[in-house]
Design brief:
Blueprint lengths: L1 H10 L3 H8 L4 H4 L6 H4 L7 H8 L6 H18 L7 H11 L7 H12 L12 H36 L9 H4 L4
């Protein structure tokens, strides 16, 4: 994790510079190849918590909240729904969402896509804060299931590789054959 923080500090002088290239409006471009939850695990795990730890002088969640606030405002604008989320509610919603410390930027892009596709429900005339919180909860469950399946598959693959291991026939290698006499 320290290596990732170092890399972020080398690439971006401060949080403002980071936001110019990695802000909520850029997620669609920067993570255009993320279409499934499994894709998230192939990306650099830049979490909201990591952003706060890297760019905040005191390490508080202030920058994570700033990022989430920006994400929610972008969602508001992108959905183009008549009744928007009030500013005070946006702050509270950002605070609730940032409790999910595991959320990466790739996750935010994918959740954004899923909300646009109405995967977790449809917005009718206004942005429903409960629907947004529910979307994050549903996504968290799906993500956990995918992560467990990926780990199980990895373990099974390792077991398969162990079963397929064959001890070499040293009798066919004359120079090694003499070593084992």
């Amino acid at each position: 994790m320290e290596e990732l923080k170092k890399q972020l500090r080398q690439n971006y002088v401060n949080f403002t510079d980071f936001m110019k290239e990695q802000g909520p409006q850029q997620l669609m471009v920067n993570y255009e190849d993320v279409h499934r939850i499994a894709d998230v695990f192939t990306k650099t795990p830049v979490t909201l918590q990591l952003l706060s730890e890297t760019f905040s002088a005191d390490g508080t969640q202030t920058l994570a909240l700033t990022y989430m606030r920006g994400w929610l405002l972008f969602l508001n604008d992108f959905l183009n729904i008549n009744k928007r989320i009030p500013a005070a509610i946006t702050d509270q919603l950002a605070s609730i969402i940032t409790r999910h410390r595991w959320i990466t930027l790739a996750d935010l892009k994918l959740i954004f896509d899923f909300i646009l596709e109405s995967r977790y429900g449809t917005f009718y005339g206004s942005i429903d804060t409960q629907r947004i919180i529910t979307s994050f909860a549903e996504y968290a469950r799906e993500r956990k299931d995918v992560e467990i399946k990926m780990k199980e598959k990895e373990v099974e693959q390792l077991k398969q590789e162990e079963r397929e291991y064959v001890v070499p026939d040293f009798s066919k290698l004359p120079t090694l054959k003499n070593l084992f006499k």
